[in-house]
Amino acid sequence: MSKDRPLFDDEWLPGWLTDAGITSAGPSAESLAQQRPQTGGLTMPDPFANAVIPPVRTGGTAAVPRWMEQAPGQSQEIDAGVPAWMQRGSLNVIEPSSLPLPMWMRRKVEDAAAPISEPDLSALPMPDLDAFAPPQPSGAPQTVATPKYTAETLDPLPWLPGVSNPLDQPVPIAMTDSNWLSETSDPANPPGMNTAGDEADRNTGEQPAQPGPRGLRRLVKPSTGELKGETSQPATPPPNDAANLTYEAWERTQAEQAQAPQHQTDEELLGAVPDWLATVENPSAAEPPASSVAGGPEFMPDWFAGLEEQSQNAAPDWFNPAEIANTPLTGPTNVPIISEPVGTDAGSPVDALALDWMSDLPDLPGFSTVESPVELSPESTSLPLELPPAETGATDDIPTWMRELNPDESAVPPSSGGTPDWLADVPRVSDHAPVASHESAEVPAADLPEWLAALQPGVSNEAPLPAEADPSPSGQLNLGRNVSSADIDALMSLPMVSHVEPDPVPSPSMPLDPGSLSLEESDLDSILGPMPAAATPEAAPPAEIGPKVPHSRRTGLSRAVETHTANAPKPPAEPEVAPVRPATALPEFVADMRPSDVPVQFKIGGVVEIGVEEAPLSQLTDQLRQLRDHALAFKPPEPPPTASAGPLADLAGPLAVEPVIVRAATSASPSAISAVGGASDAQLRRVDVIRRLLEIEGTESTTAGASRPKAAARPAARVNVERLIVSLILLALLIAPFFTHVLNVVTPPDTSAPTAAQSAVFNAMDGLVAKQPIMVAFEYGPTGAGELDDLARDLLHDLFKHGAKPVIVSTDFAGAMHAESLLSTFGHDANELQALNRTADQPLLARTDYVVLRYLPAGAAGVRTMVSAVYRGGLEAQTEFTTDLEGQISGLSLSDLAALRNGPVIVLAETPEDVRNWAEQYRAPADASAVPAKIILATSAAADATASTYSAALPQTIIGPLVGLRDATLYEELRQPPTTPTATDRLLQRWQSVGLGAWAAAGLILFGALFGLLGSFRRREARR
Amino acid sequence: MTINLIATYAAAVLTVLIFSYLLGDNFLYRIAVHLLVGAAAGYSLIVTVESVIIPWITLTLIGGFANPNFAIGLIPLLVGVLLAFKISPRLSRFGNLGLAFVLGIGGAVAIWGAVAGTLLPLAVDVAHSFTPATAINGFIALIGTLSTLIYFTYIGVRRSSGEVTQPLPIQLIGRVGQGFIVVTLGATFALVILSALTIFTGVIVNRLLVLKPG
User: Fold this and answer.
1) How large is the C-alpha radius of gyration of chain B?
2) pLDDT tens-place string over residues A470-520
3) Mean pLDDT over each residue of chain A, to the nearest integer
4) Are A965 and B201 within 8 A, CB to CB?
5) Cβ–Cβ < 8 Å for A642, A652
6) How many CA atoms lie within 13 A of A56 on its CB side?
7) In what helix (H) or strand (E) does residue A261 lie, and over which residues does it extend?
8) Which of A383, A405, A410, A488 could serve as A331's disulfide partner, Cβ 3.0–4.6 Å?
9) What does the pLDDT look like over A223-252, one tens digit per residue?
10) Which candidate from A730, A786, A825 shows the least CB-CB separation from B199?
11) According to the model, what pLDDT value does residue A32 have?
């Protein structure tokens, strides 16, 4: 189908090429075709290459390019009536004899005596969207001969004056002789469903399945076999002969052939029915027109293929301008609309009035402006599809279906038997529904939804107007104001006028969505599937027209009507003016068919967000529709109730238990569970635990009401007798040495010779110089004061004695506070002052004799910051040494920082962590000029092991350590002998107290271990 | 009566209240504990504001951009503000930034200190202990170190019964390491007890005996 499509469209060519008549295809290709026989029969790609065209004659040179004028043997002639797209380079001119009527109307009736039988409407094809199965050959009697309109028959007829459309002219064919009605008996060709392809067929005589508008064109798929039979007409020259003919000879042959009677077969009338119906009925129609392939060479030489004249309607879209006003109406614009049923008075002649109103008919198919010598009325816009009469009068000069176009005809309701099935399902339009005209088709913007108003040119989205102002009929397509003829695509894209005016006789119309009517997609579901759930709220269910269609044979159209009937609201008792709906309120079916303007946002994992444009419902495949229906019908299961008590209280969902397991767990043994679910041993144990928990919980829950008041009462403090006894023993042993010497069982510390660690500390302290600031880290608080205060006091005393200036830091805010308190006490202690050779009025003052710096936050990081401040200075030194704990200026200078680098740091650590922080972090930078840091460790007994380890591992850095009360006593005895006997006694009493307490603690621990061991043995024996 | 004496009496009373825990959890004990905790928290707040925040702001932020340390001063302030977002559950994720900064810096400092100040020195010290005079100590230290490390091995094999167990050599060596750990913990516990006893004696001397007349 598209194999002969031109490589380039003319509209893509530059203007200077098109002005010169050089086009890629189309008309200009004809000029090239003149030379094709000389070039081996190569053909230009042309979409109509396979179509049989009427004989044309070239002549004139008015619009012929110069290079084409030089072509030999051509008498070129340009007709002004030729459409513009053909005038560019085409020299084809329609044969004058064929101008008055299209070719299909010039066919001669071959079998006038063929009886006319009422078409078997039940055998008409029904578009079944689900199956699309090849329809079985209809069993309807094929007794109707094919229509045979010929030019000889129609040309002599006098045209009525003032009637512009040839279709408006009475057709002088006796109905008895005209077998056009036999078209209705064609299962594939219901009448009134003319399409572009039909029109093209008519225009081109034997031209079958001319490509029509997109979509429709794709659906025109005549049977290959049938069409092959058509091509075997004796009048058709053999392809080989035609190929050898010259153009002049071929032209003559074609002219003779046009004059000769033509045999019209049923297959040739495919163009008289909607292509989509033909496709449905004949699945083989999906194939390319066989006649266009096989029959083409019989009618013309190969070199002429694709160069024949085409009707404007048959032109591809890219030939047609975007302006729909210049596009002929070629498709069923109102497929589901059934106008006033034709009365059975078929024998009444058509009067002049009928012709008058027929003058208002639009540009009907087959009456292309290309071929019509009469200017078509631009006011004709719509063509309602009509049913053929069940019986036609023998005296009618025009087909009954044409008379049915007259709305003034009698409104006899059609019998069910006279309506084809496929039309029986179509909702009827109100009897009073006027034929759409562009005046009546104008709909106030207020009555349109916003999106419809936006689609309608010239209609603004203003505030909605009252509904009574809408004169448009229900279900009519709004063809616009200035549409004289429209392309099917453009027409299908026009907005649908919603029904707002109440109809006295409710007749639900088939609302058509522009999107669904876009036959380009060739989806019948898009045409028939969506149902107007809210389009005609006041419409009554349509009456059953035509025979009942079996459910299996019901098509999408019938189902659509049924669904609509079922869903349509009941008509009110009295006709009421439909309430004006807001413009933004879309009917459901429109909303389903109309994709959302805003893409649907999806979130994946809560992070990724993608936008997916919502496709209309009509574009969904059956599977997706089923999935959608399933999803809409899906209801999430109710969340399981949460347990109000028990181990699973307030938990739901994830712990939904299987009833079988629960029953087994609560009532049966684990073996039963294993038998049920094949659980492992571990799972059985867990189930058993849960079962016991549930039992306990159940027991508690049953007695919860009675036990709740008791539970509210706080249990009385239970004295731990063992702990109390141990504590009392330790307390007694610890206090006793302060009151008696009987319990002094601990050897006093040896003060004769200090240890190595003590000696190192003494040496370090002795190396201090006067006024040298020494950093002292108080890494203990009030909780460790009882152990480290003595040691700290001794060290501070030694510092002050050497004239050093302690600079107190601490990574513990309580340590800094305690240091300040301790120094304050120490600085005002008369004995200490006296030992320092100070009087009572010369206390040790903060920021003068010592500085308690601010506390170092962040632990190890704080120590590292201090190291950086000492060794690098800068801002860190300013922040660390500028102010003291009280926020006052510390009074330290840069020279003090240098002295800090040279002196040791005394660390009074309570915990091993403090020791580790300082031992690890307080290190001099890696430069050679830096003095290695020295740390004098004075720790508690708890940090003794850690301090000793670091001292052993870092002998160059760690000095000491001095540990707790032992070294404090030794330090005091060696370096600062107590000045008073009481102080000496206190020191010894503490030593004995700690010693005795240690012995007692060790004894209690051993006793407890033995007691526990014996108890375990006893319990083991008891078990045995 | 001086303030020191009042403080001494208060400390003695609070000490007795704490010791009342020997009779079980009681109101007096909780009063003492709450006083300690409350006083510590309040004091920490005061110390932090008075000795850390205000000096920092004064040193860096006062003066605005004219202060050369203004930009540097904003960094810890920003981190502090981020940490303040931890108060709100909804905005706590912003506080994670500040928390990550603090934890990252703290972790880096601690790891560096542990490697350079603990592991390497201790390893060197253990290696130096292998001298003829201290060979036994060195061997014990080596065995203790290796067995303790192996004890913390969490690699096992799955038996045919589905149970995951450690290989037998690992179990045996782990038992030895466990013994070292027990000894170490016992010694540490003993030192803690000794420290506690020392503290208690200090409390007796400094808090109780001062009240003894005469």
Assistant:
1) 27
2) 444 444 444 434 444 445 555 555 554 444 444 444 444 444 444 444 444
3) 62
4) yes
5) yes
6) 32
7) none
8) A488
9) 444 444 444 444 444 444 555 667 777 778
10) A786
11) 44
Side chain identity, residue A456: Q
Query: Closest residue of B to A969, CA-based?
Result: B198
Q: Among A788, A913, A929, which residue's Cα sits nearest to residue A862?
A: A913
Distance CA A316, CA A213 (A): 7
How many whole angstroms separate alpha carbon A95 and alpha carbon A98?
5
Question: What is the rounded CA–CA span in Å between residue A964 and residue A943?
Answer: 9
- Of residues A212, A207, A291, A210, the one with CA closest to residue A254: A207
Surface of B (64-83) touching A: CB under 8 A:
69, 72
End-to-end CA distance of chain B: 17
Residue owning tokens 């404090």? A968
Q: What is the pTM of this model?
A: 0.46
Chain B contact set for A784 (CB, 8 A): 195, 199
DSSP annotation string for A137-180: PP-S---SPPP--BHHHHTTSPPPTT--SGGGSPP---TTT--T
Residues 6 or more apart in contact with residue B179 via CB below 8 angstroms = B147
Contact A985, B153 (CB under 8 A): no
Find out whether A90 and A28 touch, Cβ atoms under 8 Å.
yes
As a whole number of angstroms, the distance between CA A717 and CA A713 comes to 12
Q: Is the dihedral of CA B194, B198, B203, B209 positive or negative?
A: positive
DSSP A466: P
Residue A835 in 3-state DSSP?
Answer: helix
d(CA A954, CA A946): 12
Whole-angstrom distance, CA of residue B170 vs CA of residue B156: 9
Tokens of A246: 């010259």
Tokens of residue A894, six digits? 């840069």
- On the question of a cis peptide bond just before residue A782, with omega within 30 degrees of 0, the verdict is no
**Which residue's structure tokens are 């072509």?**
A71
Spatial CA neighbour of A403 closest among A415, A393, A417: A393
Q: Decide: A142 and A173 in contact? Cβ < 8 Å.
A: no
Q: How far apart are CA A965 and CA A990, in angstroms?
A: 8
Distance, in Å, from the CA atom of A929 to the CA atom of A806, rounded to the nearest integer, reads 25
Min Cα separation A534/chain B (Å): 46
Who contacts A12 (Cβ-Cβ below 8 Å, separation ≥6)?
A24
Question: pLDDT tens across A530-539, in order?
Answer: 444 444 444 4
Strand partners, A852: A808
Q: Please give the Cα distance from A813 to A886 (Å, whole number).
A: 12
CA distance A568 to A540: 7
CA dihedral A811, A817, A818, A821 (to 10 degrees): 150
Q: Are A600 and A614 a contacting pair, CB within 8 Å?
A: yes
Distance CA(A427)–CA(A558), nearest Å, equals: 10
User: CB atoms < 10 A from the CB of A795, how many?
Assistant: 25
Structure tokens, A678: 């094949």
Per residue in A121-147, is it b (16+ CB within 10 Å) or e — as a string? bbbbbbbbbeeeeebeebebebebbbb
Give the three-state DSSP class for A406. coil
Q: Which residues of B touch A860 (CB under 8 A)?
A: 106, 109-110, 113
Taking CA atoms, what residue in B is nearest to A1001? B193
E strand or H helix that includes residue A666? helix A659-667
At CA A517, angle to CA A514 and CA A519, rounded to 5?
A: 135
Q: Cβ contacts (< 8 Å) between A986 and chain B: which residues?
A: 205, 209
**A208 burial class (0-12, 13-18, 19+ CB within 10 angstroms)?**
buried
Q: Tell me what the mean pLDDT of segment A155-182 comes to.
A: 44
Q: How far apart are CA A718 and CA A725, in angstroms?
A: 14
Question: Which residues of chain A lie closer than 8 angstroms to B187, CB-CB?
Answer: 945
Write out the H or E segment, with its range, that includes residue A938: strand A935-939
